[in-house]
Structures are given as C-alpha cells and as structure tokens.
UniProtKB/TrEMBL annotation, chain A:
Binding site for substrate: D105, S106, G107, G108, F109, D159, Q202, G229
Taxonomic lineage of the native organism: Eukaryota, Metazoa, Chordata, Craniata, Vertebrata
Keywords: Cytoplasm, Glycosyltransferase, Membrane, Metal-binding, Mitochondrion, Mitochondrion outer membrane, Transferase, tRNA processing, Zinc
Entry similarity comment: Belongs to the queuine tRNA-ribosyltransferase family.
Localization: Cytoplasm; Mitochondrion outer membrane
Topology relative to the membrane: Peripheral membrane protein
Active-site annotation: D105 (proton acceptor), D279 (nucleophile)
Protein name from the UniProt record: Queuine tRNA-ribosyltransferase catalytic subunit 1
Species: Delphinapterus leucas
From TrEMBL, chain B:
Record function comment: Non-catalytic subunit of the queuine tRNA-ribosyltransferase (TGT) that catalyzes the base-exchange of a guanine (G) residue with queuine (Q) at position 34 (anticodon wobble position) in tRNAs with GU(N) anticodons (tRNA-Asp, -Asn, -His and -Tyr), resulting in the hypermodified nucleoside queuosine (7-(((4,5-cis-dihydroxy-2-cyclopenten-1-yl)amino)methyl)-7-deazaguanosine).
Protein name in UniProt: Queuine tRNA-ribosyltransferase accessory subunit 2
Domain of life: Eukaryota
A family per Pfam: TGT
Designated gene of the protein: QTRT2
Family according to the record: Belongs to the queuine tRNA-ribosyltransferase family. QTRT2 subfamily.
Assembly and oligomerization: Heterodimer of a catalytic subunit QTRT1 and an accessory subunit QTRT2.
Gene Ontology process terms (BP): tRNA modification
Domain tRNA-guanine(15) transglycosylase-like: 134-392
Entry keywords, A to Z: Cytoplasm, Membrane, Metal-binding, Mitochondrion, Mitochondrion outer membrane, tRNA processing, Zinc
Length: 403, 394
C-alpha cells in the first residue's frame, strides 16, 4: 500500500537546529534549538508536565533549575480545561505562566495507554472520556487545532500508535496511516511561523517498515522528527536497533526527538546513537514514590536504611534539596502526609536529569564524549564492562567500546 | 544613657510598647541561640507538619512575605523520631532545614489534637480536648493538678540539663470551663519561673461568651511581661477577640485548613481603604459585604472545618474562567503569577501544585492580617479593623 504523497503546504521549513559540535566517533551531537520562547541547548531532557503543571513545583522553581522546555499533553488539556479556555488565557504559556518553551504531544500515545477507552479509524481516534463518559473524536485536524490554540512551540503530529509488542498487519497499517495523518496535520496547521510541527516515525520493531516510514516522512519538509512507537514493552535489543536505524536515515540538520526515554543509561546510549531530545515521566513520577535519582542508580528514601543517613541525596548535586536537606529528614517527611516531601524529590530528580544532559553536552563539545560514556557506565554499574549487554552493543555499533 | 546591665543574662524579654483596651502591642526580644532575634506581638507562629510548612519547600516558603520568626513544631509528630534526632546531635532546627528559625514545640497539632483522656508519658499537660462536653469540676481540678506537676518536673529537668539552658519553658493554663480552676491554674503557674503561658482548652468549651469571660479572667492573673500564647484559635474574628483579652501569640493553622479545602483567604483587613475602592475590595466583584446580627453569634469554635466566610472556594464552577488573581493587589507569588482559573483547573484535575500555590497565598494573606493588627494598634485604629473583620464573619 503506497503512501499518497500530498503536496506539502509548508514552505521550506526553517532550520531550527544549529549544530555546535559532533562526536568524531559516535553519532552524538551537541546543538542549539532556536525556538519562539528562547534557545534550548541539546541534547536536552524535557520534563513532563501533563496538565499544565510540573507536578507540585512552581514555574519559578522549574525555571531556577535551568529547564527551558517542558511538555504538556493535548489529550488531557483538550478535555480539561479545554482549548477555548486556554486560548482565552493567552495560550498554554499564559495559562500556566511558563515563560520558556513548551512541546505538546498530540494525544496519540493515549491511544495505547488508554486503549480500552479508544477506537482507531482512518478518521481519527475516538475516545470515551473517563470523566463524563462523553465521546470525542481526535482527528489529525482536531489535534492540530487544539495544539494551535495551546500555542506550544513544538507540536506533534497525530500518529497512529500501536504498542511495540504488537505484531502483524496492524503495525504496517499504523505506519502508513501515520504518514497520511502527517500530511493532514501539515495541511491543517494554521501557525507554521509560530509553532514547529514535528513528524513521528513509526513502523514498530520491523526494520523494513521503519525504513519505509523514514523514507516517506523525510520527504516532508517539517522542522523536526520524532522517533515514536518505542519505549513500550519491547526488548532493549530491538529498541536500540530501531533507534539506530532511525537516526541513520534522519537528516543531520534537523533535531531528532526520541519519545518516552528517560532512564539515565538509555539517555546516554541514545545520545551516542544520534538523538537530541528526550521526554519521560519517569524522573518526576518516581520522585512521587520517594525515589531519588543518583549517579549510581536510585535511593528508595522511604526505606529504613535512610532513617539516620544524614548525608544529602548527592553531595555533588547543587539542587536546593541537596543543599538544605539530608536523606534522614526526607525519609521522615516521606513518612508523613506533608506533600513537601514529594516536591523536594521532584526538584532533585529534575535537577539530576538536567545536570546529566549538561554533562553529556559538555563532553561532546570538549571532544571527550566516549570517555564520558565510559566514566558514566563505570559509576552506574561499578565497572564499564558490567553495563547491560544491549548498551554495550549499541555503543559498539557507533564506535564506542567500554573497557 | 544608662549603662548596659552586663550582669543580667540575655534571656527572652517581652517589652510592651503600649496596651490599649486590653490589647498588647510589643516585642519579644533576646530570642534564639545568639539572643538577638525578635518577635512582634500580637503575632503568629508558622504552622508546620513534621517540621516542614505544609506543601512548601524552603524555596517556596521563602517566597512568602512576612513569614514569622518562630515556627511551631508538634511534639507528637517528632516524638517518634526521637532516636534519630538524638543521634543527629545537632538539634531539630538544623535537621528540618530551618537552622535560623526560632522554634516553639507544642504538644499537639492543633489540626488533629489528642482525644480527651489520652494522657501518656509524652504529654506534658493534661487538657480536655473535646469540643462539646462541659467539664466536670473534678476533671478540671485533676487536669490543673497534673499539669502543675508536669510543669514542676519539666522545670527540674531543665535545671539539670545543659542543652535546655537556652530554651524557655511555657506553662500551660488548664481548668476547662470551671472558673475557680482556671484561676487556680493561672495563679499557680504564674508562681513558677516559666518564660510564658499557653492558654489551653479555650478552643471549644461552652459558648463564646463563657469562653471569652474565662479568658479575660485568666489573663488578668498573669504577669504583664510574659507572653501569652493560645492554642486552637486561628480564625480572624476569634484572634481579635483573644487579643482584646490579653493574648499575644497564635497558631497559623487556619490558612492551612483553608488550603486543604481548596479555598483561598480573601477577607479584607484594609481598614483604611481609598473610599472608591471600598465596595470592590472584598471577595472579588460579585459578593457583597455581609452584615451580621451580633447578638446571634453563638458558634462555638474554630474546630469545625467547614468553609468560612473569610475565603472563597476555588472549586466552584464560577472560577473556571476567572482570570483575576485570588485577591487583587495581593503581593504574594500566587497572585502575582497566577489566576483563579488556573487554580480552579489544578483543583479539578487534582494536581499537587494547587496545594502549593494556595498555601503560599493563604499564609501570606494571614501574616498580612497580623501586620495589619499591629499597625492598627499602633495608630489606635483597632476598632475599625475589628468592625471590618466582624462585617465579614458570618
């Protein structure tokens, strides 16, 4: 089933990414995104603030941590409070009073995560609202319309998402439909000068399907590409191969956004494979469960072993939580009903992610990324050679050997 | 031109600037480890839960203007961490991340007090906590006796402890609603070398009139130059009534309770507004100032956790598209940066940030109220402030 190539209504899209440095061994790049609400250094991790809030930390706190781009979600915001209200509030930026950049997902992922409430047809995705039982149709046009009202700096096409564990003809159907939906999104996009529409590469875990999707979508002159349909239940071995395949076929002068990736090891490996942007709920979600991220993994601070541990979470961390509080105090607070405990950890975990990306970037700029990777793996796994085999293979495939 | 008296140890001292109709205005000086901290009275303490302001990190707490110099910790919350604190060795202030703050440790959390009869080795006073029952004389007498005994034991322990030398012990006045026992408790406690007095059990007994009468009688027995704290009273109208009867310090759990119900404090304490603005001040544009039949006021307590007339309920649908701040011209972080519509959205979607922003606003508004009280006392305008507050009570 050949994709119908419709003429794009986008003129040659602006190059929003400037490359600052490239690793001479791997595919890692350091760059700068030029977005309507200011520049963003890449590689970048984007925290997820689904419903116009970063889960208990204020916009000012997020700004103070150095975050310059974060996520909102079209599906959720489209239901509550709705695009009309947000438009009256001067867009999502105005509504949540966030001065920097916003990226909105199209609502496509909810098709997978809320699969029991959704039904996909060529028209779009029909959702049944969990709040009032109402049915809504999220079509490519409607998704773009909502995102136009939200006014986010980067908007995502509506893609036909299937879980990475699904096999068979459904995967192919979704891939081709995503291409058609991309064209419909491009056609419907009312504000190409203010909002950057990214395509999302699908194709599941099938190399041929992915390659076809890459070939077709890169014919569309969009400002950036996302690699979608991964970071579900697939094996890491399949995961990295699809990422590597994608980056090998995506243009160098446009940003590559790998969706749903946020574990530290995954971030480092996927930067090596050539990705620039990442998002994941993991760091903020795990914070609310009492888990603090550290270079050696994580600390489950509710556990008794931290009761009298008077050290900060991470002595090297400059975040407000580590500057002021001990593991012992956080342990105490986590066992109370004061929500401040969760906020302390959210602040720290976001700081951790941003600091990691900063360190990755500096190493690329300073031409020592492979050494950085070895150090990182050594810290995380005790020895670089003890890092998971998928990561070792993935890194080897781009010329980085560990130990 | 008097030479400084070098012999007198630097200990907590209340110096009164003026006393007007029973209301005391002044400063408590020589507080803290280095003895150079001051607290204004009438004033309030920063309410905390497990050593932290509710919902707030150091960062967000310090965005609030007018945070009191002294925070209230609850012994019942910290007692279970006694071992940890003992091993920490550097004091609870540093442990909770408030090393510069003055700390007051109360037995009970005013929001969830011990039920009556719960007397364990943790409690240092024996108070009647139920709101409704009248106290029997025998019970009242026992509570006074026990409390005095505990006090004497505490004073003895303090004498013997090096660590507690710089701490101040507050004596607790008990006695239920039995006048005789209240007076006895006051007189006896006043004989001890306490740093100040906590008026306990006034948060629910009997009717308002009885309560206030008992309060006046008690404070009349207390020395002028020692501060009087009251627990369980935090609502604006009740605060003023207590100040008129010689109370100096209050807990700030009222803004916390409002936060937990998704409400924002909006009552006005601007008793000298520019005339044209008077009608628009309170509660946004739609609500009118409520006038209250003063004789009908027989409500008992601030124990109840229903929405008061001092606040608005942001969950109401009418705020969905209200792009005004919570309170116009409020200088707090929430009002300077966010709208009622946004807070409404956060509440409807059950987002954690709702609690954070409301707490920031409610604390700042409440601390601003106390500042207004002090200014009103200074300029002899308390009657006007009182009238304004009572107009808004219902």
């Amino acid at each position: 089933m050949a994709a119908v190539v419709s003429p794009t209504s986008l003129e040659s899209a602006p190059r929003i990414m400037r490359l600052v440095a490239e690793c001479s061994r791997s595919r890692a790049r350091a760059g700068e995104l030029r977005l309507p609400h200011g520049p963003v250094a890449t590689p970048v991790f984007m925290p997820v603030g689904t419903q116009a809030t970063m889960k208990g930390i204020t916009a000012e706190q997020l700004d103070a941590l150095g975050c310059r781009i974060c996520l909102g979600n079209t599906y959720h915001l489209g239901l509550r409070p709705g695009p009309e209200l947000i438009q009256k509030a001067r867009g999502l930026h105005g509504f949540m009073n966030w001065p920097h950049n916003l990226l909105t997902d199209s609502g496509g992922f909810q098709m997978v995560s809320l699969v029991s409430l959704s039904e996909v047809t060529e028209e779009g995705v029909r959702f049944r609202s969990p709040y009032d039982g109402d049915e809504t149709l999220l079509s490519p046009e409607r998704s773009v319309e909502i995102q136009n009202a939200l006014g986010s700096d980067i908007i995502m096409q509506l893609d036909d998402v299937v879980s990475s564990t699904v096999t068979g003809p459904r995967v192919e159907e979704a891939m081709y439909r995503s291409i058609r939906w991309l064209d419909r999104c491009i056609a419907a996009h009312q504000r190409p000068d203010k909002q950057n529409l990214f395509a999302i590469i699908q194709g599941g875990l099938d190399a041929d399907l992915r390659a076809t999707c890459l070939e077709e979508m890169t014919k569309r002159d969009v400002p950036g590409f996302a690699i979608g349909g991964l970071s579900g239940g697939e094996s890491k071995g399949q995961f990295w191969r699809m990422v590597a395949l994608s980056t090998s076929r995506l243009p160098k002068d446009k940003p590559r956004y790998l969706m749903g990736v946020g574990y530290a090891t995954d971030l480092v490996v996927c930067v090596a494979l050539g990705c620039d942007m990442f998002d994941c709920v993991f760091p903020t979600r795990t914070a609310r469960f009492g888990s603090a991220l550290v270079p050696t993994g994580n600390l489950q601070l509710k556990k008794k072993q931290y009761e009298k541990d008077f050290r900060p979470i991470d002595a090297e961390c400059a975040c407000p939580t580590c500057q002021k509080h001990s593991r012992a105090f956080l342990h105490t607070l986590l066992h109370s009903d004061n929500t401040a405990a969760l906020h302390h950890l959210t602040v720290h975990n976001i700081a951790y992610q941003l600091r990691l990306m900063s360190a990755v970037r500096a190493s690329i700029v300073e031409k020592r990324f492979p050494d950085f990777v070895r150090d990182f793996m050594g810290t995380m796994y005790g020895d670089p050679t003890l890092c998971p085999s998928w990561a070792t293979e993935a890194l080897a495939s781009v010329g980085i050997t560990l130990g | 031109m008097q030479p400084k008296d070098l012999e007198e140890p630097l200990r907590m001292k209340l110096s009164l600037t003026k006393v007007v109709n029973g209301c005391r205005l002044g400063k408590i000086k020589n507080l803290g480890k280095t003895g150079d901290c001051t607290m204004d009275i009438p004033g309030c303490l920063l309410y905390t839960k497990t050593g932290s302001a509710p919902h707030l990190t150091h960062h967000t707490l310090h965005k609030i203007h007018g945070v009191p110099a002294m925070a209230q910790l609850t012994l019942s919350a910290l007692a279970e961490h006694h071992e940890v604190l003992a091993e920490y060795k550097e004091g609870v202030g540093k442990f909770i991340g408030m090393p510069e703050s003055l700390l007051y440790c109360s037995l009970h959390d005013p929001v969830s007090p011990c039920p009556a009869g719960y007397v364990t080795n943790k409690c240092l006073s024996d108070g009647e906590a139920t709101c409704d029952e009248a106290t029997s004389i025998k019970r009242a007498r026992k509570s006074v006796d026990r409390s005095l005994l505990f006090l004497d034991n505490c004073l003895k322990l303090q004498e013997e402890s090096e660590v507690l030398q710089k701490s101040v012990i507050i004596g607790v006045i008990e006695g239920g609603d039995v006048m005789e026992e209240r007076l006895r408790s006051a007189r006896e406690t006043a004989k001890r070398p306490v740093g100040g007095f906590l008026l306990d059990g006034f948060q629910g007994t009997a009717t308002l009139e009885t309560r206030l009468h008992l309060l006046s009688s008690v404070t009349a027995e207390l020395p002028e130059h020692k501060p009087r704290l009251i627990c369980g009273v935090s609502q604006p109208d009740e605060v003023l009534e207590c100040i008129e009867r010689g109370v100096d310090l209050f807990e700030s759990f009222f803004p916390y309770l409002a936060t937990e119900r998704g409400c924002a404090l909006t009552f006005s304490f601007d008793y000298q507004p520019i005339p044209e603005e008077t009608l628009l001040q309170q509660n946004g544009t739609e609500e009118e100032v409520k006038y209250v039949d003063q004789t009908k006021k027989s409500k008992t307590t601030s124990c109840n956790q229903e929405i008061t007339s001092f606040e608005i309920n942001l969950k109401e649908k009418k705020y969905q598209e209200d792009f005004d701040p919570l309170v116009r011209e409020c200088p707090c972080y929430c009002c300077k940066n966010h709208t009622r519509a946004y807070i409404h959205h956060l509440l409807v979607t059950n987002e954690l940030l709702a609690g954070v922003l409301l707490m920031m606003h409610n604390f700042e508004h409440y601390f601003g109220f106390f500042q207004a009280i002090r200014e009103a006392l200074k300029s002899d305008r308390l009657a006007q402030l009182k009238e304004l507050i009572h107009r808004q009570a219902s």
